[in-house]
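Q: Give me the 3D complex with uridine-5'-diphosphate.
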Amino acid sequence: MKRTKLAIVVPCYNEEEVLPTSADILLNIMQKMIDIKQIDANSKILFVNDGSKDGTWTLIKQLEQKNSLFTGLKFSRNFGHQNALMAGMEVAGKYADCVITIDADLQDDETLIPKMVASYQEGNEVVLGVRNDRSSDSKFKRWTAESFYNLMGKMGVQLVPDHADYRLLGSHAIKVLMDYKETNLFLRGIVPQLGFNTQKLYYQRKPRLAGETKYPLKKMISFAFDGITSFSIAPVKAIMTLGVFVIAISLIMVVYSIIRFFTGNVISGWTSIMTSLWFLGGIQLIGISVLGEYIGKIYAEVKHRPRYVIETDDYSVTQKSDVVENTHDLAGA
Ligand code: UDP
Ligand code: MG
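A: Here is the predicted complex, encoded as structure tokens.
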């Protein structure tokens, strides 16, 4: 049987403090898997340097010299974590049977790697690392993460709670993932949409080996906002609800103003201003949300997401020779 060729993709942004240690640990794991013949000797650990301003790239080059299992890819500037993952998977997916993505700080339990590969070998195209405990995170990070998953759920975005970007994807799943052409990437929302046989493996997240987080609050909020707006037009629908609510208030205002008008004691013009103010406000909100619905549809269209994902297609395999013959006929005609 052909041995599984594995690629471990590691996004790196200013990670010179952790890289030597992480590289050593990952190399050890990969070497062991090669020794016991679980994976092909031509497997790789691919570091994606996401425009680091420190010595990360020099370190990666040194690692490449040291061991041929290491290899690197360098962005021309900082494109962000999600793009680094995507690039790593795109490049590695061409050569490897399966790709595992893991953060450079090894907060995610690297001992899960052989188990992920075993799960792939048992027929799972997607293996998700899910953390079962957040005790290593600060209270604040835990609270924000929890609120994030709650909010996303309410907005109708299906996420696997506590699964970040530690996962294995088979090359077939990666090929399909590359058909998601959107620039605003939110991988953990897309991956559950791919389908395929999926397994979750649980682990405990550790504190960072060294250095500091590359996801400060500002980046986290913008990431969350990206996630919501990439997958949901719930905010637009909320405007519609608000519009209907304001119109309901306008009706109450109409009744109230008319009563005030007849019981006297109103400045002339007040009744008409009060009733039209609320009514117009409501109409405007509804108008905006209707426009929003159309923009939402355009948004969904321009993303050109695949309509479906074919896992196996025996028909095309059996018909392939026919297709070639037909083209010959056409060419000859
Ligand atoms: N990262 C990246 N580009 C960025 C920010 C982060 O490639 O612009 C990488 C970073 O080097 C790390 C991973 O993404 O390997 C996750 O970052 P970090 O560990 O700082 O995030 P946290 O675990 O604190 O959420
Ligand atoms: Mg981290």
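A quick observation: The chain has two domains: 6-231+305-332, 234-302.
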